[in-house]
Write a structure and sequence with these properties.
The chain is α/β, with parallel strands linked by helices and 632 residues long. It has 23 helices and 17 strands. It has helices at 2-22, 27-34, 37-54, 60-72, 79-87, 94-106, 114-121, 129-142, 144-150, 156-166, 172-187, 192-195, 229-233, 258-269, 287-302, 321-333, 348-360, 389-400, 447-457, 473-482, 505-514, 528-534, 538-548, and strands spanning 217-218, 221-222, 274-277, 306-311, 340-343, 364-367, 410-413, 425-429, 443-445, 462-466, 489-493, 496-499, 555-558, 582-584, 593-598, 608-613, 616-618. The chain starts with a helix and ends in a 14-residue tail after the last strand. It is an enzyme of class 6 (ligase). Residues 591-627 form the Glutamyl/glutaminyl-tRNA synthetase class Ib anti-codon binding domain.
Length: 632
């Protein structure tokens, strides 16, 4: 009996394999689908229904729609309903299918209103070539001046996005062909200048201003000071986009809803620049953070905007209240007042709701691979990547209720990042109380999931971060667009690092924990609290950051150059009443001379004072010796 049952199961598997490859799936993809019992059962039903209506030969476009419907459908009871529209050629595109899936998800009660469903999915809508031509012509007319100026360097994706927003159900390829045709008619064939590589943006470090003459750190050397940090960050200096013109940024992804979302964003912000400083409250800020504070708060201030102080408190195991207090204290010590103090935990409810939506859209799944299995640059793909949406929703709810242990389940997003990392984790299980939310949550979002969505919620215009986060830019854009929410722009700048010092927070924590230093404010460290304890004024640290400059590359300097930034105290001379140690010399002239000495040797524009040069010269007693000591 067992052998007969096994043979029957093998025959069913072979039959299903033939059905799946018959709709255009590769054999490898078909076998992977077979490993997912729920998905393979739904897909088999869909294919058999389609074959009964259209015959055994199904084209690949129909097969793709059937697979997408089976893999993304939340409620299997609507499968036959959707397949009917596919086989009747009333749902022809993935855009229509996505609208259909969204409709049945948001209308769980039966029977469905067929007329309303068809309106929502564009059934029967016929977009004529003439309509496409008119829409593209109108869009190009609005951007004619910019097109003529920038020619083929203009972001053609913007034209596509605006045309599609006017004609929602038009075929994307037809719109692209029409855009290409009309652009060619307007600009003519590409010239040699058009074919040249786009020149790199000018260096962010502006030309020196001659009247400002002070020392500057440049790769550890001393040179001439550049403009102030506010001047470096003002206006067009960094070639950043203007608020609301996110789509003009290279690499920005334009979707059919981008322009509407940007319009809504501008209505909320009034076109104001918005930045944020997002520290993790698991340590004290160091000199490298000072540049980030100056860059984020400084850019907002230089352009009439605002800056949020947002704590990235998504890892409760390492966070302490003393760090929250110290971080804000250091920001204010450097002279900046946050527009608002927020926390990633303020948005935990919204982030969880969006995670559910991401699963419903087929863009996230619950995975059981261990941490060590997904580490590295080329980990094996997850065998649970294509599990049914409904199954992932139930398992994610189990994660929230604490039914999985730490490391037993994660929520992962379906994307490949710029550094090749596949399907980054969005949520993980941690049975650690949170200092703000207590025991409400036992799942916490990761940086890759949280950061861009918090930026979207706060309507940040410029998400400024250091270069190591460049590999996260693709996931930043992808996640906002996957959820169809406002997408800010991430810009990267070079970190500040000092030679022969320890500025890594992880290493400083190790020094503190092992007792190598007394605490975070040990004067031997380069944390901001330690520098303050050593007597460095905040103006000196801000001045040092300005001299390093707002550059793309790593800003290296020697720690000895930091004291050179302390220019708050002028030079003064004072004569003590003690007469010991005086020596006499012949008078240099019949009358006493007055010598002009600069108050600030590095900046003579800040005034001089007079020092009398008389017949009697006083020497500090400890500096005077009649008989010199022999050299050792």
């Amino acid at each position: 009996m067992a052998a007969a049952g096994g043979a029957m199961a093998a025959e069913e598997a072979e039959e299903a394999l033939g059905l799946f490859t018959g709709i255009g799936l590769s054999e490898a993809k078909a076998r992977e689908t077979l490993r997912n019992g729920a998905l393979s059962a739904l897909l088999r039903r869909a294919v058999l229904q389609a074959r009964s209506a259209l015959g055994p030969a199904l084209d690949k476009a129909t097969g793709t729609l059937l697979y997408n419907a089976a893999s993304r459908l939340r409620d299997p009871k609507h499968l036959g309903f959707l397949v009917g529209y596919i086989v009747r050629r009333e749902i022809l595109t993935d855009l229509q299918l996505s609208a259909a899936l969204e409709y049945v998800r948001s209308h769980p009660l039966e029977p469905l209103d067929v007329a309303d469903f068809e309106r929502a999915c564009g059934v029967g809508v016929c977009v004529t070539p003439e309509q496409i031509e008119e829409a593209v012509e109108a869009v190009i007319g609005e951007h004619r001046a910019e097109l003529l100026a920038e020619r083929y360097r203009f972001n053609m994706g913007l034209l596509m996005g605006e045309a599609r927003s006017r004609l929602r159900w038009a075929d994307g390829k037809t719109i692209k062909n029409e855009v290409d045709l009309q652009v060619l008619h307007l600009l003519g064939p590409k010239t040699e200048a058009d074919l040249e590589k786009k020149p790199k943006a000018a260096k962010t470090r502006p030309a020196p201003v001659e009247k400002q003459k002070a020392t500057v750190v440049e790769n550890g050397e001393v040179g001439t000071e550049t403009r102030s940090l506010l001047e470096q960050l003002r206006g067009e200096a960094l070639k950043f986009h203007k608020p609301g013109e996110n789509y003009k940024t290279e690499g920005y992804v334009v979707t059919p809803n981008t322009m509407a979302l940007l319009k809504q964003h501008l209505a909320i912000t009034g076109g104001q620049v918005r930045t944020r400083f997002p520290p993790e409250p698991n340590g004290i800020l160091h000199i490298g953070h000072a540049k980030a504070i100056n860059f984020n708060f400084g850019y907002a201030k230089a352009n009439g905007g605002v800056c949020f102080l947002r704590y990235d408190d998504t890892n409760p195991e390492k966070e302490e209240e003393k760090y929250f207090t110290a971080i804000r204290e250091m920001v204010e010590w450097l002279g900046y007042q946050p527009y608002a103090v927020t926390h990633a935990s303020d948005y935990f409810d919204q982030l969880y709701t969006w995670a559910l939506e991401l699963i419903r859209r087929g863009q996230a799944y619950v995975c059981h691979q261990k941490v060590e299995e997904i580490k590295g640059h080329n980990p094996p793909p997850s065998p649970w990547r294509d599990r049914p949406v409904e199954e992932s929703l139930l398992l994610f709810e189990d994660m929230r209720k604490g039914k999985f242990g730490e490391g037993e389940a994660t929520l992962r997003m379906k994307l490949v990042m710029e550094d090749g990392k596949m399907d980054p984790v969005a949520y993980r299980v941690k049975f650690t109380p949170h200092h703000r939310t207590g025991d409400k949550w036992c799942i916490y979002p990761t940086y890759d999931y949280t950061h861009c969505l918090c930026d979207s919620i706060e309507h940040i215009t410029h998400s400024l971060c250091t270069k190591e986060f460049q590999a996260r830019r693709s996931s930043y854009f992808w996640l906002c667009n996957a959820l169809d929410v406002y997408c800010p722009v991430q810009w990267e700048y070079g970190r500040l690092n000092l030679l022969y010092t320890v500025v890594s927070k992880r290493k400083i924590i190790r020094l503190v924990e092992t007792g190598a230093v007394r605490d975070w404010d040990d004067p031997r460290l380069f944390t901001l609290t330690a520098l303050r304890r050593r007597g460095f004024p905040p103006e000196a640290i801000n001045n040092f950051c300005a001299r390093v400059g707002a550059r793309d590359g790593m800003g290296w300097g020697r720690w000895m150059c930091l004291p050179a930034s302390v220019v708050t105290a002028g030079r003064h001379h004072h004569q003590l009443p003690c007469p010991e140690g005086e020596t006499h010399s012949p008078p240099p002239s019949p009358q006493a001379l007055e010598v002009l000495v600069p108050n600030f040797p590095a900046d003579e524009s800040r005034g001089f004072h007079k020092v009398p040069f008389q017949t009697t010269i006083y020497i500090e007693e400890t500096d005077f010796r009649e008989v010199s000591r022999p050299h050792q």
